[in-house]
Please model this.
Amino acid sequence: MNWHFESDRPIYLQLKEQILLQIVSGSYPAGSRLPPVRDMAAEASVNPNTLQKALSELERDGIVYAQRTSGRFVTEDEKMIAQAKEALASEQLELFLKKMAALGYTRAETLALINKKAKE
Model:
């Protein structure tokens, strides 16, 4: 996994987002075991405590769960994963629409551009 971090936001939030992206995209399927914290932290070149905080946030959201001595697993609730995917898509669409509005496009004009591009 390629980890990319920006300096303007807390690392644990970016870790949380990137792990969630891997879950909703199917890289970590429902019910699958996540790699150990130390392995993921080493791969991302972050402190294990920072990664632990990101995973704790995902646990609080119900996307992952911990099994004593076995590690962390992705929820088996595919409906919850689909909802998380839809929420991420909605956030990205809102950001895109704001950027297009900043360029002077209305939503209808933006939609027309998307349709035109999709047909190319």
The mean pLDDT is 95.
